[in-house]
Amino acid sequence: MDEVKVVVAHSERATLRVGDVFLKVDADQARIDVEVEAMALAPVPTPEVLWRKPSVLAIAALPGTALGRLGEPSTASPAAWAAAGAAIRKLHEAPLPPWPGRRRRDPDELAAELDGECELLVTNGILPADLVARNRQVAEAAIRPWTPVFTHGDLQVDHVFVDGDEVTGIIDWSEAGRGDALFDLATFTLGHEEHLDDVIAGYGTDVELDVVHAWWSLRSLLGVRWLVEHGFDAFAPGCEVDVLRSRM
């Protein structure tokens, strides 16, 4: 009998693996609905949906392995990273999904959220003031008007699977919707700056590097406190706090 492996678990959702089946349990049914619809619309390989019931989604495992993991060096080839960039470009060029996206915020709202989070990081003693101030300055370039595209919304590097130099699938679509293309690229390369050129080569168009760098800082600033409060280690080597330190 296959054992049950907890892939990730916190108060909002959990993912379990039993053999070649992943069970996603989510307190927010809307996230499951978005995930299923996004996978049906996305013009890139996605996992097979086996069944769904209220609060639970069962999907089949993808062939291959994750392209990398945050905090660990990636052993994937430059060609694999470029192939991922090409897949991301294909997604961004697809017709917009009919829903707005969970992460869609106007620049003023995003700036206000960021300022509030920066204040909490300092007053709660989570990060030093100079580190927060410098990254808040870098993050400013991401707070601008942008043209919405079909985005994954949570395109962490371990959500992209490859076999050799071929992308076999992209998982975890619950945050998909209309969003900023450079947010996807920044999320994908967070902690893997050395592979950004390969990704851009596969993406095949000019990319505003200062905005990608800004999203690295912005995403990390917004994420550190949540990660700490939910039992994740944002201070581990190569993770969010190291990303912030690299901007100093």
UniProtKB/TrEMBL annotation:
Fetch the Pfam families from UniProt: APH
List where the protein spans the membrane: none
Q: Indicate whether Hydrolase appears among the record's keywords.
A: no
InterPro entries per record: AGP_Transferase, Aminoglycoside_PTrfase, Kinase-like_dom_sf
Give one GO molecular function term.
transferase activity
Q: Enumerate the spans annotated as Aminoglycoside phosphotransferase domain.
A: 42-204
Keyword line: Transferase
The name this protein carries in UniProt is Phosphotransferase
Q: Which organism is it from?
A: Phytoactinopolyspora mesophila
